[in-house]
Amino acid sequence: MVDGIDMRDAEDGPPHDAAPETHAAAVIWPRGFTMERTGLHWTSPGDDPKTSWIASPFAVEGETRTGAGEGWGFLLSWQDSDKHVHTFAMPRRLLLGEAREFEGVLIDGGMRIASALPLRQRFRDALMNLRTTQRITSVSRSGWHHGAGGIVYVMGDGNTFGPSAERVVLQGAAPDAAATAAPSGTLAEWQEHVAALAVGNDLAALFLAAAFAGPILDIVGEPSGGLHAFGASQKGKTTILRLAASAWGKPEAGAALRTWRSTSNGLEGVAAACNDALLSLDELGQCDAREAGEIAYLFANGAGKSRAARDGSARAARSWRLMLLSTGEMDLTAKLAEGGKRAMAGQLVRLLNIPLPDAGPMGQALHGRETGGALLVAANEAARRFHGTAASEFLGRLAEMRADDPEGLAATIGAARDAWVADNLPNDADGQVSAAARRFGIIAAAGELAASFGILPWPEGEAARAAAAGFRLWLAHRGGAGAHEDAEAVDAVRRFLVQHGASRFAMLTRNAETKKLDEDATRIVGGRMGWRWKATGGRWEYLAEASVFRAEICAGRDPKTVLGALKRAGFLRGEAGRNDTKAPAVIEGLGRPRVYAIGPRLSAGWRAKHDCPSPCPTCPNLPQRHQMRGNLYRMGLAPACPSCPSQKRWWGSDGGAPDHGGALAGARICSAPYRQRACSLGGARDA
Predict the structure, then answer these.
(1) How far apart, in Å, are the Cα atoms of 525 and each of 504, 521, 542, 544, 549?
(2) 52 with 64: CB under 8 angstroms?
(3) What is the pTM of this model?
(4) SS (H, E, C) 104-130
(5) FRET partner for 401 with CA separation of 20 to 30 A, picked from 227, 549, 605, 658?
């Protein structure tokens, strides 16, 4: 009831016995304007007054402005002919622009307005000059808002959660926001038919837990970030994305589920509309390869482009904090390569590439179905029927807890995140891996919090387990817990040697009489970059001339970074305190040039073998002497070791973990003394 009008009977106007002062207390119309049963009217002054109808009935619910006292306007509400209520937070500045900017919104919502231009101008006069005693705080985006006497969460459809000294409304909400978030079915039906199907299915549970992570990012000060599941077509990628989107609204394209088919500028508005919430993007393949990397940075950095206003001043850039879930048939690296670009470490740590497991995202626990395909069909149908109830319930509980004890809530979520990271992060992890682990940790904390609220019908620890499984898949696809730049630099040098090793490096042979090295005279090497010779063991060692190495092999990369990566991996033979070295002997006619000696193991794809200490000081399951396999831990096959007092990680086919078979059979890990590298009891093999 605002302005004396009950909106359930708005078409008939206010009650006939409503006192005039009731209207005056809320809204003071300019002289000559009155709101009657049939709508807003204008009475001309003079001895022969004439009354004209201007618009159908509407209520002015209050005067809006931001918490900083800017952007003044009105909150209008009215009913259409079907008795549906519409609201519009109208900035007053729109009255100075084109009529269609505000009249069009009202007409689209079912309000009737006089068509004569003079009467439409009277309508503007009435709105420009009316006054009201009611004040409302307006916000320009959804999500958490601090001020107005409390911390309030505003959903995209305008619903609010949390206490506030005055009403808070979303200005500029999308016209279809209410329909997108409209609930279908009950929370209990969503829990039974949608959420329960994710239990035991790693990626499905990971994505569904991530659906609740967006609102807690602001609470613990975590940045935006995302997960990207990729794999072959028709394997269930879109299905798990729909499961996650169903927590927020209708999981269909154009509603709570969106696609990558857009420009970076267009997706700025989408990201801002999903602030402190979930953004679901389907099919990376539809995105322009030239923009995919920029968009990955855009989402994670939390701010759009800075743009100039008409007068040259800077416009306020859009900003957001969100959880992005994405799918596609290729990962981000492949998508960027499609456009001729190289994936940067910053992009890959902002959007984490997770391959689908062999069983598919919902093929591990079938929940009574005969096949994984049947479960996917059931999950899709259930998400279509039941959606839009879980997020609002979660936000209600979260806002209540944040109002009661914000510091305690932040500490609880932060502790859950940190505990997960401590349990799952490799000891020798690079900072990039640590950042990714925090994202998985916050997803685990969000899922466990939703389960503790009774919203996710999962057993305790299910969200944390799913996050750990997803983290292992990401680590395996990434190729280890080291710096991405190191792995990429080593691979780039390896590719170069495979492609050009025989054609651009002159072969050296040792002269038995002079003991010098001679170039092979039987073939001419064009564009020579260095030399190659057979080192101990009969494998080729490449001697790249120092300046050529920096200019050509390191083209597009920092030479120091490449050399450091090669040295840390054990593929660079240098002199003490140096990365380069002299040629192993005098080369006839050239002396002993300074070269970078790249070991033979690099081009063969060899992985270093290291002896473990004897006996193994921590884990009694390991024999006294064996050799380590460097990449097994990084493949993520490492649950907790029940025999180690420190509960470090190990893996073994006899330890209750899934049997991955083949070359991994019988392999174990003990992290404390070996920096979490795997041990192969049957002798070291190349990983």
Answers:
(1) 6, 10, 14, 14, 16
(2) no
(3) 0.72
(4) HHHHHCCCCECCCHHHHHHHHHHHHHC
(5) 227
Q: What are the residue ranges of helices labelled H in 425-483? A: 431-452, 462-478
Q: Record the tokens describing residue 267, joined without a space.
A: 């997706």
Which of these, 659, 543, 535, lies nearest to 606 by C-alpha position?
Answer: 535
For residues 600 and 590, is the Cβ–Cβ distance under 8 A?
A: no
Question: What integer pLDDT is reported at residue 582 of this predicted model?
Answer: 74
Omega within 30 of 0 (cis) for the link into 118 = no
Task: Indicate if the alpha-carbon torsion angle 210, 214, 215, 218 is positive or negative.
Answer: positive
DSSP secondary structure code for residue 246 in this structure:
T
CB 632 within 8 A of CB 683: no
For 255-271, how does the pLDDT look when each residue is reduced to its tens digit (9 = 90+)?
899 999 887 778 888 88
DSSP H or E segment with residue 76: strand 73-79
Residue-wise pLDDT for 587-633, tens only, equals 877 888 888 888 766 655 433 333 333 333 333 333 322 333 333 33
Phi, psi of 499 (to 5 degrees): -80, -40
Report which of 507, 423, 472, 479 is spatially closest to residue 605, judged by C-alpha positions.
479
Q: What is the C-alpha separation between 213 and 208, in angstroms, rounded?
A: 9
Q: Is residue 237 exposed (0-12), middle (13-18) or buried (19+ Cβ within 10 Å)?
A: buried
Confirm if 130 and 30 have CB atoms less than 8 A apart.
yes
Cα–Cα distance, 610 to 674 (Å, whole number): 9
- Coil/strand/helix, residue 548: helix
Which ranges constitute the DSSP H helices of 41-171?
Answer: 100-108, 117-129
Closest residue by Cα to residue 650 from 623, 621, 624, 610: 621
Q: What is the DSSP string of 208-230?
A: HHHTTTHHHHHHHTPPPEEEEEE
Q: What is the pLDDT of residue 175?
A: 67
Q: How many whole angstroms separate alpha carbon 373 and alpha carbon 626?
A: 43
More confident residue, 57 or 619: 57
Q: What is the pLDDT of residues 434-484, one digit of tens each?
A: 999 999 999 999 999 999 999 999 999 999 999 999 999 998 888 776 666
Which residues face 154 on adjacent strands?
143, 160
**Which residue from 520, 521, 535, 532 is spatially nearest to 496, judged by alpha carbons?**
532
The CA distance from 562 to 579, in Å, is 11
Q: How confident is the model at residue 682 (pLDDT cuts 50, 70, 90)?
A: very low
Q: In this predicted structure, what is the pLDDT of residue 462?
A: 97
pLDDT at position 577 is 72
